[in-house]
Design brief:
By secondary structure, this protein is of the alpha/beta class. It is built from eleven helices and eleven strands. Helix 7 links the parallel strand 7 and strand 8. Helix 1 packs parallel to helix 9 and helix 6 crosses helix 11. It is elongated, with a radius of gyration of 22 Å.
Length: about 325
């Protein structure tokens, strides 16, 4: 057997652990593995390299992806997937493992419709993939954000200020919610918020000031529409000194946490095993601590939203 693997979209800590596990498990089954470079671009152009135990030695603890990644505009057209199919057929592959987020999986669905057996592994710090409770890179991103905010708060406490910190996550507020809980933030603003939440935030700061509190931490999700004005509103209405910070891409870098390495490795093992047993078109996920696999297309059609527990955590953080 011969299989391909690629990483696509935004990089996430733990992607290298997946690649390493895929190669190790494939070697056990005497399956050849070919890594396509820069995501679907490599699959379209035939830019690949054969992977073996030597090429993945020592990569588990590395951030980013040794296969590199990119977004592929051509894959959004009808021609892109057909070119990818030509490469796949030319190499006589028996399956393809794709690691990435929502856009990566949509690309994989297109390939399945052309007859390519695909296995999707969720690798995105946003943890916004439907049908799985966890995506690779999420834990590392939270740990990184928490550490950076801890550093920021040393200065905030010294000066008696309010710090507004924007974290990544696109339209998902999961990084913001969990980082706010981990840092003891005074308030968290998630995508989909409204003016009432802003009023609640302002009132909370005013109330806490009267109680003697001198410093505040506000976590804002990347997908919030009011993220650029909230610091100004806080300063204008509370008369407190406000600073803002955008953590940005630092959250996508660094060595993956133990949790991300472990889950990534388990997902990689499951993906190779499915292909070895002639399975196809599955998405690997994690539910209630267990590695599962679901129909890829059905998994993509499911909607992912904050559950009741997330709402309860949000109320807990934002309450007086």
């Amino acid at each position: 057997m011969k299989i391909g693997v690629l990483t696509s979209g935004g990089d996430a800590p733990g992607m290298n652990a997946v690649i390493c596990a895929i190669v190790k498990k494939a070697t056990e089954y005497e399956i050849d593995v070919y890594g396509f470079l820069k995501g679907y671009n490599g699959l379209i152009s035939g830019n690949f390299k054969k992977l073996n135990m030597d090429s993945v030695a020592g990569i588990v603890n590395l951030g980013g992806t040794v296969l590199q990644t990119a977004r592929c505009e051509e894959f959004l057209t009808d021609l892109g997937p057909r070119k990818a199919k030509q490469t796949y057929d030319m190499m006589a592959l028996d399956g393809l493992i794709v690691i990435g987020g929502d856009g990566t999986f949509r690309g994989a669905v297109k390939l399945t419709e052309l007859g390519i057996p695909c296995i999707g592994i969720p690798g995105t710090i946003d943890n916004d993939i439907a049908s799985t409770g966890y995506t690779i890179g999420f834990d590392t991103a939270i740990n990184t954000a928490t550490k950076m905010i801890d550093f920021l708060m040393d200065s905030v406490k010294s000066h008696g200020r309010c710090m507004v910190v924007e974290v990544m996550g696109r339209e998902s507020g999961k990084i913001a919610l969990n980082t706010a809980l981990a840092t003891g933030a005074d308030f968290v603003l998630l995508p989909g918020g409204n003016e009432e939440q802003e009023k609640q935030l302002i009132n909370k700061i005013k109330y806490k000031k009267v109680q003697g509190k001198e410093h505040f931490l506000i976590i804002v999700a990347e997908g919030c529409q009011n993220k650029n004005t909230i610091a100004e509103k806080i300063a204008a209405e509370t008369k407190i000194s406000v600073r803002s910070s955008v953590l940005g891409y630092v959250q996508r870098g660094g060595a993956p946490s133990a949790k991300d390495r472990i889950i990534a490795s388990k997902m990689g093992i499951r993906a190779v095993t499915i292909l070895k047993n002639k399975g196809k078109n599955r998405m690997i996920g994690e539910l209630s601590g267990k590695i599962v696999d679901l129909d890829l297309k059905e998994a993509m059609n499911n909607k992912n939203s904050n559950n009741a527990d997330d709402k309860e955590v949000e109320r807990f953080i934002n309450s007086l």
